[in-house]
Amino acid sequence: MSIRKVYGPLDREDADRRKVRYLYLDARRIAKERGLVIDPPKKIFSARLAFYGGLYAAKNRQFRPYSNRVFDRFWKQELDVESRDAISAIVAEVGLDPAEFLRYADSGARADLDACFAETDRDKVFGVPTFIVDGEPFWGEDRIEWVIRKLDAMGFRR
User: Fold this and answer.
1) Are 77 and 41 in contact (CB under 8 A)?
2) 80-109 pLDDT, tens per residue?
3) Does one domain contain both 114 and 144?
4) Are residues 88 and 19 part of one domain?
5) pLDDT for the residue 20
6) Nearest alpha carbon to residue 38 among 70, 67, 63, 73
7) Which stretches of the chain are assigned E, i.e. beta strand?
């Protein structure tokens, strides 16, 4: 076993790649604790089109069924999140119009996603999951117990 300290500034792109790789490791550790297997993707994808699908589904009150399918298939390596056909097929599965989705993806989706990113910047959110309770941020799945304690202290019982 070796432990090493990293010194010096990293190139932002390299740092982002390292963060993504680390987050995949965490996801696999969390899944293992729950008896699940997560196979990391073979490459780092642009999930922009899948985000557009999520925004479109949310506008049409179908976010949960859409995101459940995307999450499940992506981690089983059954979904190419960069494929218009694949994302359109999931949109159709949840009862929405894939042609309307593609029109949205080609027109207003970019501005809507940029607005979401601007909101996260204003809220100083830098990763998921992030919970903000009474103005206090909690980042990471392992912080949920702290979120619960904070809510309990505020008088909110589950």
Assistant:
1) yes
2) 999 999 999 999 999 999 999 999 999 999
3) no
4) no
5) 77
6) 73
7) 130-133, 136-139
Average pLDDT (40-68) is: 92
The more confidently predicted of residues 32 and 53 is 53
Virtual torsion, Cα 48, 51, 55, 56, nearest 10 deg: 80
CA distances, 72 to each of 9, 69, 95, 106, 119 (Å): 36, 5, 18, 25, 27
End-to-end CA distance of the chain: 42
Backbone angles phi, psi at 53, to 5 degrees: -60, -40
* Element housing 13 (H / E): helix 12-33
85 and 23 share a domain?
Answer: no
Closest CA to 52 of 19, 79, 90, 93: 90
Does residue 4 fall inside a structural domain? no
Same domain, 58 and 111: yes
Beta carbons of 105 and 69 less than 8 angstroms apart:
no
